[in-house]
Amino acid sequence: QVPLVESGGGLVQAGGSLRLSCAASGRTFGSYRMGWFRQAPGKEREFVASISSNAVTYYADSVKGRFTISRDNADNTVYLQMNGLKPEDTAVYYCGKTNTVWNRASWGQGTQVTVSS
Q1: CA-CA distance, 95 to 48, in Å (whole number)?
Q2: How far apart (Å, rounded) are the C-alpha atoms in residues 42 and 37?
Q3: Residue 2: its pLDDT value, please?
Q4: Contact 84, 100 (CB under 8 A)
Q5: 85 Rama sector, left if φ>0, alpha if ψ -120 to 50, beta otherwise
Q6: Which residue numbers in the chain have pLDDT < 50?
Q7: Average pLDDT, the chain
Q8: pLDDT of residue 1
Q9: DSSP character for 75?
Q10: What pLDDT is attached to residue 60?
């Protein structure tokens, strides 16, 4: 059973919006800290946003005020609403879950987001 499946990526013009979804399997979704990371070509994977089991959120400075992370524990899903997209947001976006630290997280397969100028 695939633990995490992302969807919602695509091609959008600068200034546009996308909503990413990440569906998780298992009955303990609500206990995990969930997060979104991204990796652009030639760059390392970087933190975008996270949400704790009690809905405390954190954002990278580069997306603060434009992106919103949320979760629906009844549907085992975490979302990333992305507004005001910029070409520098272009990357593969990965959903992760962890009960410890991010380098021990489980990851999805990623979804491509491309923002044209």
Answers
A1: 10
A2: 15
A3: 60
A4: no
A5: beta
A6: none
A7: 95
A8: 53
A9: T
A10: 98
Handedness of CA 109, 50, 65, 72 (dihedral sign): positive
Is 78 buried (19+), middle (13-18) or exposed (0-12) by CB count in 10 A? buried
Region of 104 (left: φ > 0; alpha: ψ -120 to 50; beta: rest) is alpha
- pLDDT value, residue 3: 84
| Pair type for strands 4-7 and 10-13 | unpaired
Q: Which backbone phi and psi does 29 adopt, to 5 degrees?
A: -55, -45
CB 27 within 8 A of CB 95: no
Residue 110 has what pLDDT? Answer: 96
Residue 65 near residue 94 (C-beta atoms within 8 A): no
Q: How many residues are there in the chain?
A: 117
3-state secondary structure of 51: strand
Instruction: Please give the pLDDT value at position 27.
Output: 81
Burial-class residue 7 by CB neighbours within 10 Å (0-12, 13-18, 19+). Answer: middle
